[in-house]
Amino acid sequence: LGPMKLEPKPPKASVARKRRRSLKVEKVKPEELEDTISKEKTETEKTIAKMFDVLKINKKVRLENLVLNRISFAQTVENLFALSFLVKDGRVVITVDDNGSHYVSPRNAPAASLITSRKVVYSHFIFRFDFNDWK
C-alpha cells in the first residue's frame, strides 16, 4: 500500500457566519386546494350517524341487535368499530342488567369544561369478539 505518514495536520479554521435577521415578519398561509378538502363523509362516519339515529329512536337497544350482522362478519366488526367511537366520545352508554345482557342507550356528551376539570372521568373496557363468537 505504500508508506504512511503519521504527521499531525493542523486543524481547519472554522468560520462562523452571522444570520441575517429579516426586518419583515411575514406569515405564510399556503393556498388550500379544492381537491384536498373532502366534504363527503367516510363510511365509518355514515355508520356512526346511522347507529346514533337508531339509538335516538329506540332509547334502549340490546348490544347484539345493534352490532350483529348475521350475514357478514366484516360488517359486524365495522359496527363494533363505529360503536367504539360513540362510547369514546361519551355519546352512548353501555349498561349490563342482572341477567348479563348488554344494553346501549344514547346520552348527551359531557361539556368540555367538565372533562378538563375532571368532574367527568371516562372509563374504558375491553370487548373480545372474534369469528367464533360471531358464529
Explain what this protein looks like in three dimensions.
The chain is an alpha+beta fold and 135 residues long. The chain has a domain of 91 residues: Structural maintenance of chromosome 1. Chain E (Arc Repressor Mutant, subunit A, Orthogonal Bundle), CATH 1.10.10.580. The protein has five helices and three strands; from the N terminus they run H-E-H-H-E-E-H-H. A three-stranded antiparallel β-sheet has the order 1-3-2. A hairpin with a 5-residue loop joins strand 2 and strand 3. The longest helix is centred in the middle third of the chain and has 16 residues. The termini are far apart.
Helix-strand makeup class: alpha+beta
* Widest sheet, order of strands: 1-3-2
What's the total count of β strands?
3
The level 1 CATH classification of the domain at 43-133 is: Mainly Alpha
Give the topology string: H per helix, E per strand.
HEHHEEHH
Shape: elongated
What is the rounded distance between the termini?
A: 74 Å
Share of β-strand residues: 5-15%
Largest sheet properties: 3 strands, antiparallel
Helix content percent band: 25-40%
CATH topology value of the domain at 43-133: Arc Repressor Mutant, subunit A
Can you identify the CATH superfamily of the domain at 43-133?
Answer: Structural maintenance of chromosome 1. Chain E
Q: In angstroms, what is the radius of gyration? A: 30 Å
Regions with pLDDT < 50 over 5+ consecutive residues? Answer: none
Q: What is the level-2 CATH architecture name of the domain at 43-133?
A: Orthogonal Bundle
Number of helices: 5
Mean pLDDT: 78
